[in-house]
Amino acid sequence: MTIRILITGGTFDKEYDELSGQLYFRSTHLPALLKLGRCQLDCQVTSLMLKDSLDLNEVDREVIFSACSQASETRIVITHGTDTMTDTARDLAALELDKTIVLTGAMIPCSFGSSDGLFNMGSALSFVQALPAGVYIAMNGMIFTWDNVRKNRALGRFETLTVPLADA
């Protein structure tokens, strides 16, 4: 099984400029992460863009949708900024592709030693192999369906919109 990984940017791929104090994009960290994680999966990586998700526009989203539609692989992981990840997931779900698509990202840039990016990517790669066709978000070891997730900015994490019946 080959997994297509689509790179769009987000905090996942940001660098820190020590002189200006700004975050910026240079290149993706994904090949280094796959090597660091000793990934043995057959992954085909495509870099679509390196953008903050708040800067994504309709043309950018069309590039993402087209890449998913045209991919010969039925298992796709997308690196994406966390601020609009749920929006892209919703719009991808509307395409009703017969593929398993998992979006993931990082709250802290992968270039920082304390990043959650490596763990999130490992989780996304595991989830994309095991889940049925659909659109999902994988963050911090959790998996969410596209229609039952939100980013809790106050707590800095993703969470379900509804309480599972077992917890009610």
Strand content: 25-35%
Shape summary: globular
- Computed Rg: 15 Å
Quickly give the structural class: alpha/beta
Total domain units: 1
Low-confidence stretches: none
By DSSP (H or I, 4+ residues per run), the number of helices equals: 4
What do you see in this structure?
- The strands form 3 sheets. Strands 4-1-5-6-7-8 form a 6-stranded mixed β-sheet, with helices on both faces. It has a two-stranded antiparallel ribbon with strand order 2-3. It has a two-stranded antiparallel sheet with strand order 9-10.
- It has 4 helices and 10 strands.
- With 168 residues, it is an alpha/beta fold.
- A hairpin with a 2-residue loop joins strand 7 (134-139) and strand 8 (142-145).
- The protein has a single domain, classed as L-asparaginase, N-terminal domain (Rossmann fold, 3-Layer(aba) Sandwich).
Structure summarized in a few sentences:
The protein is α/β, with parallel strands linked by helices.
SSE map:
Elements: E1 2-9, E2 14-16, E3 23-25, H1 30-36, E4 42-51, H2 58-70, E5 75-79, H3 85-94, E6 100-104, H4 117-130, E7 134-139, E8 142-145, E9 150-152, E10 157-159
Parallel strand pairs: 1-4, 1-5, 5-6, 6-7
Antiparallel strand pairs: 2-3, 7-8, 9-10
Throw out a few tags for this protein.
4 helices, about 30% strand, alpha/beta, two-stranded antiparallel sheet, globular, 6-stranded mixed sheet, single chain, about 25% helix, Rossmann fold, about 170 residues
